[in-house]
Every structure is written in structure tokens, then in C-alpha cells.
Design goal:
mainly alpha; Tetracycline Repressor, domain 2; 9 helices
């Protein structure tokens, strides 16, 4: 198999280092060492660590399987639940040592970098829009109660999810995930036809 380009190697290493160390602690040398590339070559591909972080966020978002949220072949609430189950399973697979890179950057660096804050904001906006579209589809199909606002609910779900990740990592336990799924899908997004008399 052909070796990835040097730029792709650097982006892949940056994703790993940002996840392991955080933005501030992951230096350019750490990233290029992990990529197996000369430090001097970094600036042939990126203007700064900040610009690399923006690209890393884009690649991270692509790995979240966002496209599954728009899969018209799957019922909207089912695909929404599967999306969060995938994210949960990824967290467990990594031994609860990684959170969401979007949320991590938002907490660590967004107050000190307008470039990264804008990238985090854009990432959350895109994610929210996909969740809101699935919720709107479910509401239109009559699966959700009609007074549920898709966009506000999508923002709430993402906020709840990011908080759930923090607690799950602190506890090294799936308990927080269990609570998220119980409340989010058993109560907030309970199907209309699941309620007797609905």
C-alpha cells in the first residue's frame, strides 16, 4: 500500500497528539516526531500549529460518521441513536482516555484563539444541523411530539453529550452513557407511539 503523503502523516499524528496531550501540550516537534517527518517540513504544509488544528478538527469530524445522520434508508431516531452509540463505543474502545476533540478544543483553547474558536463553532453548527434535520424528519413522520423544537433539542443533546463524555472519562465507567441514553431516548425523544394514550 502506498505511503500517505507527508501532509496526511502530519494531520494523522496531530489528531493523535491533540487527543493524548491536548492542544497546548502537543508541540510541533511532538507531532512531527509522531509522524516520522522532519520538524522543518511542517511549515511547508502548515502556517502554524493553529492552522493544523483547524485541519485536524475537519478530519476528526469526518471520522464521526456524520453522514450516518442523513442516511434516508434508516429511520431517523434509529440512526440518531446509532450515531451516539458509535461515539460511546469509540470512547470505551480507547479506555475512556479520549473525549470529543471538538469539545476538548472548545474547553482548552477557544478562549485564546479566535481561529480555533471559529472552527469549533463551525463544527458544532454542522453537527447540530444534522441532528436537527433527523429530529425534524422524525417529528414530521409523527414519531416525536409536535411541540419539540428540532434545533433547540439538537443543541441540548450535543451539550448533554459533551458533559456525559467528561463524566464518563472521570468515572472510567459507562454509567454516564447509560443515563444519557435513558433520558435522551427514553424520555426526551421517546416515540409518541411508545406512550399509552398518546
Amino acid at each position: 500500500m502506498a505511503r500517505k503523503s507527508m501532509r496526511a502523516e502530519i494531520v494523522g499524528a496531530a489528531l493523535e497528539q491533540f487527543h493524548i496531550r491536548g492542544y497546548n501540550a502537543a508541540g510541533v516537534k511532538d507531532i512531527t516526531d509522531a509522524a516520522g517527518t522532519p520538524k522543518g517540513s511542517f511549515y511547508n504544509h502548515f502556517d502554524s500549529k493553529e492552522s493544523l488544528a483547524v485541519v485536524a478538527l475537519e478530519h476528526y469530524g469526518a471520522g464521526l460518521r456524520m453522514e450516518d445522520l442523513a442516511d434516508g434508508e434508516v429511520e431517523p431516531l434509529t440512526r440518531l441513536r446509532r450515531h451516539f452509540e458509535f461515539l460511546r463505543d469509540e470512547t470505551v474502545r480507547h479506555g475512556f482516555t479520549r473525549g470529543c476533540l471538538i469539545g476538548n478544543f472548545g474547553a482548552e483553547i477557544a478562549d485564546r484563539s479566535d481561529v480555533i474558536r471559529t472552527a469549533v463553532h463551525r463544527s458544532f453548527q454542522q453537527w447540530t444541523a444534522l441532528i436537527a434535520a433527523a429530529l425534524a424528519e422524525a417529528r414530521h413522520a409523527g414519531s416525536l411530539r409536535p411541540d419539540l423544537d428540532p434545533e433547540a433539542t439538537a443543541r441540548f443533546l450535543l451539550g448533554a453529550w459533551e458533559g456525559t463524555l467528561v463524566v464518563a472519562r472521570a468515572d472510567r465507567s459507562v454509567s454516564a452513557f447509560d443515563s444519557f441514553f435513558t433520558v435522551a431516548f427514553g424520555t426526551l425523544l421517546a416515540r409518541v407511539d411508545d406512550h399509552t394514550g398518546a
